[in-house]
Design a protein that fits this description.
The structure holds two protein chains of two kinds. By secondary structure, chain A is mainly alpha-helical. Chain A has helices at 16-30, 36-47, 53-64, 66-74, 76-82, 113-116, 121-124, 126-134, 136-142, 179-185, 188-192, and strands at 90-94, 99-104, 152-157, 163-167. In chain A, helix 4 packs across helix 5. In chain B, 57% of the residues lie in helices and 4% in strands. Classes of the chains: A mainly alpha, B mainly alpha.
Chain lengths: 204, 112
Amino acid sequence: MSGNHGNGHHRHDESSASLRARALESLLIEKGLTSSDLVDKVISAYEQDVGPKNGAKVVARAWADPAYKARLLADGSSAVEELGFGGALIAVVENTPTVHNLVVCTLCSCYPSALLGLPPTWYKSFAYRSRAVIEPRAVLREFGLDLDESVEVRVWDSSSELRYLVLPERPAGTENLSEEELAELVTRDAMIGVAKVQAPVAAR
Amino acid sequence: MTMQPDRQIADMGGASSLPRKNGELVFDAAWEARVFGMTISMHERSLFAWDEFRSELIEEIAEADRAGSDSTYYERWLEAFEHLLVEKGLLSHEELAARLADFESGRRDDAF
C-alpha cells in the first residue's frame, strides 16, 4: 500500500483520525524526524512479513485441545485451515520425550510461510541445509540444544509439495495457562525443531 | 536497501499484538499504515526505545477498554504515539493542535 490518497477525494467523509494522521506526518517531516520515503519503506517491509504467530496459535491449540491435536497430526493442512490459515500442504510432526524432530529443506528454502512467516537466513544457508541431515545432533548443539543420546532425532526434508512443522513438547508447569498465554511461549525456532519451548519464568 | 521487520515489533504479544489476517498485517485505512510507518521509522532512528512506545500503547488500550470505548486498535496506537512524542519533547500539544486546525480548515492539504 503506497498510502496515496490521490487528491483528497473523500474530503467530506475523511475520518478525524485520518486528518490527525496527516497533520502529524506533515509536522514530523517538517521537523526532520521522519520522511515519507522511510515511512513507505517500513510499511512495505512489514506488509510482507507474516511472522511465526500463526504457527504458535496452531501449537497452542494442539496443546490445549487433544482432539485438535489428533486432527493436526493426522491431516496438518485441514487442521491448520480450521484456524483460518491456508497455504501449502503441511505435515505436523510431534516431539516427545523420546523423539525430537528437525525440519530442513535440503534443496532450497521450502518453509511453511503461512504459519511461520519468512524463513531465517540460517535456514536458507548451505551449511544448515547440508549438515542438518548428516549431523543433526551437532547442528542442534550449536543452537544450544544438547539432546540425550537416548533421544531419537528425526530429520524431515520440506519440499514445495509438503512442508513440515514441528509440534514442540508442552513445557512443564504450564497447566494453568490459557491458550493465548501458551501461544506466546512458542517460538519460531521451536517449530523448526532447533529449540525447545521454555516454560515462563514464573512456572520454572 | 530493504528493511527487515524487527521481531520485537512484528511479534508483539498480548493486547498490543498487531492486527493480522491469515498472518498478514491488516490496515483498514491508509492512515493506519502511515501511523504505523511513522512510529517504526522514528524508532529505527533511535528516537525512542520500542518498549517506551509499547508501554504507552498497552496503557492506552487498557484505558480505552476500561472506559468501554469502541475505538480501534490503530486509533489507540495514534493516541499512544502522540502521547509519547509529547512526553519525549519531540512535539508539543500546541503544535499538534495548530497543525490539525490547518488541515481541518483546508489551509493545508498534504496528502500522504
